[in-house]
Amino acid sequence: MMHHQGNGVVKMAIGQRSFERRGAKSQKPKAIFPVRLCYTGPRRGYITLVSVLVVGAVGAAICVSILLLGLAASRNGFVSEQSKQARVLADACGEEALQQLRDSTAFAGSGSLSFGQGSCRYAVTNLGGENRLVMASSTVGVVVRKERAMINKINPLIQVVSWQDIAD
């Protein structure tokens, strides 16, 4: 900030300090540090850069979402396939229990089978007379399937009253 005094002394204040120049007349003093004004017009470069960053972030989010959905679908398909295999194994063990009853009508006990993709167990319980309860379970990977069969007649043919999947 400059102050002109009538005695030819010009006082300039920069920050907290002030300086005096003697012999200066009414001419405007030159700036000690030249100041350049920057162009403040439209900032197309910044707008383009921000637009590219936003579009890139949205594109990356879409790609990650598609990858995660594909992974989940693949995992669901794998578990579904294991569930089908476990059901087939549980059926096989139930059939093996029926074969044991066919071979010996007095059979009451348990057994197991092992296959390449998993294993299964069965148990036959005598409920009195010709009534039997057959429980079969199988495991493939992390999937466990269980079945229950009710039998009310063994001779001359085995008569299955119910055969159903059961929950844990």
Quick rundown:
This protein has one domain: Pantoate--beta-alanine Ligase, Chain: A,domain 2, CATH 3.30.1300. Helices cover 36% and strands 35% of the residues. The protein has one helix spanning 44-103; strands at residues 2-4, 10-14, 17-21, 109-114, 119-128, 131-140, 143-153, 159-166.
Query: What integer is the average pLDDT?
Result: 82
Radius of gyration from the alpha-carbon trace, in angstroms? 45 Å
Distance between the termini: 88 Å
**CATH topology, which one?**
Pantoate--beta-alanine Ligase, Chain: A,domain 2
Number of strands: 8
Strand content: 25-35%
Low-confidence stretches: 12-16
User: Helices and strands, in N-to-C order?
Assistant: EEEHEEEEE
CATH class: Alpha Beta
Strand order of the largest sheet: 4-5-6-7-8
